[in-house]
Design brief:
GST_C, Glutathione S-transferase 1-like, 8 helices, Glutathione-S-Trfase_C-like, globular, 6 strands, Glutathione_S-Trfase, binds glutathione, two-stranded parallel sheet, Glutaredoxin, four-stranded mixed sheet
Length: 219
């Protein structure tokens, strides 16, 4: 088997989604930390591998793949012992893809749109509109979960890893009200039962939440 290397940092939700997938598939990997605040992702070497300069970045024996959703799909397709985490059936796959694109566009981006200006330009005043986008993300997630155990029914998929890593980080900008969103709260508790979840996801999520605690005023 080829050597897998994941570039990332623990506080990053998309990085944690890839770590959850690697652990679920029981794949050996090397983890290389990239310090974004020291601009390590803007070095010539990193830009050659990922001109979009984002983490996570996967190096599979010289094949470079970035964007967490693309990485998770690739890992299951290439190395999964079965297709449970990312079904091959076109309809089931389309439903999982919908949740993945939802994470990429409507759940993670509202968080990134608040955190990046703070991390790189110290912007702490956040327009209410940006916060509303986070709330919309929570609302949709609650709705999608319905009466299901996981985001795509009774079986856990990579959509749960991607959306779960983001959802558990959103309290950095807007507290998750368990009374308003009971299904999200129950789903996160369900994910927490994975033996590697605390180590791979919640530790980084807590660190991320701490980093941004009391940093914002909403205008
Ligand atoms: N859609 C991308 C988002 C990745 C992303 O925004 N990563 C952040 C860290 S959480 C990053 O690398 N920021 C540095 C930059 O964009 O220059 C994914 O899912 O991988």
């Amino acid at each position: 088997m080829s050597k897998l290397v994941l570039y990332g940092l623990d506080v990053s939700p998309p990085v944690r989604a890839c770590l959850l997938t690697l652990r679920a598939l029981e794949l050996p990997y090397e983890y290389i930390e990239v310090d974004l605040l020291s601009r390590e992702h803007l070095t010539e070497d990193f830009l050659k591998k990922n001109p979009q300069h984002t983490v996570p970045l996967l190096d599979d024996n010289g094949t470079y793949i970035w964007d967490s959703h693309a990485i998770c799909c690739y890992l299951v397709d290439k190395y999964g012992k079965n297709d449970e985490l990312y079904p091959k059936d076109v309809v089931k796959r389309a439903f999982v893809n919908q949740r993945l694109y939802f994470d990429a566009s409507a759940l993670f981006m509202p968080l990134r749109n608040i955190s990046v200006p703070y991390f790189y330009h110290n912007v702490s005043e956040v327009p209410q509109e940006k916060l509303n986008n986070v709330k919309d993300g929570y609302r949709h997630l609650e709705n999608f979960l319905g009466d299901n155990k996981y985001l795509n029914g009774d079986t856990m998929t990579i959509a749960d890893f991607c959306c779960g890593a983001t959802a558990s980080s959103l309290p950095a900008v807007l507290k998750m009200d368990a009374e308003e969103f009971p299904k999200i709260a129950a789903w996160l508790r369900r994910l927490e039962k994975l033996p590697y979840y605390e180590e791979v996801n919640n530790t980084g999520a807590q660190k991320y939440i701490e980093m941004l605690k009391n940093k914002f005023t909403y205008v």
